[in-house]
Amino acid sequence: MTRSDLPHVLCPECGAENNTFANVCWICRRPLYDGEDIIEAEAAVPQSKPSQDRLGRIFGIWSFIILAFAVVLVGMGVYVEQPGALLLYMIVVAPLSIGVGVLIFKGNQSSHPVLRGITMSLSAVIVTAGTMVMLAIAGVIALIVFCLMMFAASGGF
Predict the structure, then answer these.
(1) What is the pLDDT of residue 53?
(2) In angstroms, rounded to a whole number, what is the distance separating the alpha carbons of residues 50 and 94?
(3) Is residue 56 within 8 Å of 63, Cβ to Cβ?
(4) Helix pair angle (113-153, 94-107), 10° resolution
(5) In a 10 Å sphere around its CB, with 0-12 CB exposed, 13-18 middle and 19+ buried, how is residue 144 labelled?
(6) How many angstroms separate the CA atoms of 147 and 140, rounded?
(7) Across the chain, which distance is largest between two alpha carbons, in Å?
(8) Which residues are within 8 A (CB) of 104 and not within 5 positions of it... i.e. 6 or more apart?
(9) What is the pLDDT of residue 41?
(10) In terms of DSSP bridges, do strands 17-19 and 8-10 run parallel, antiparallel, or are they unpaired?
């Protein structure tokens, strides 16, 4: 609905059509309403921020931490496999990854619904994948410790 779709009020003095929300005529400046017809508006009480802001902040922080942790781990792997490629990795991949992390962190706190939805989805994927990788690493470490304990219990050491 546009302003032109709204009903118009005729000025009692000059007969000009005025917008419904106008207090005075746009031509002769005569008041369109008597004092009793005007309703004073009260200031709107600011609403508290929804819990989505807190959730977005938490997702943003954790996705940034997981991305930074992944950049460090992959950088260590690059260094072990090809030390000469570490400089290229640090110049190209690391800043892009950190930039994506910052974008996700800021986007999760955005008031724009599309940007917020995209970054919340992306950060949820990153947090889920990071958690699964960390659980897998913990599982492998636990399996190695278990095997070493079994080996030691059988008198292998």
Answers:
(1) 67
(2) 34
(3) no
(4) 120
(5) exposed
(6) 10
(7) 109
(8) 59, 60, 63, 64, 67, 119, 122, 123, 126
(9) 42
(10) antiparallel
Question: What is the Cα–Cα distance from 130 to 124, expressed in whole angstroms?
Answer: 10
**Residue 53 token pair:** 């802001």
CA pair distance 11, 16, nearest whole angstrom: 5
SS3 42: coil
Of 74, 64, 127, nearest in space to 100 by CA: 64
Mean pLDDT in order along the chain per 10 residues (157 residues)? 68 82 84 62 51 71 82 87 87 82 75 79 80 87 92 79
Strands (E), the chain: 8-10, 17-19
Angle at 126 between CA 67 and CA 78, to 5 degrees: 40
What per-residue confidence (pLDDT) applies to 147? 92
Q: Structure pTM?
A: 0.48
Dist CA 74 CA 62 (whole Å): 18
Bridge partners for 17 per DSSP: 10
Tokens of 15: 């007969």
CA separation (Å) from 34 to 15, 22, 31, 57, 101? 17, 13, 7, 51, 58
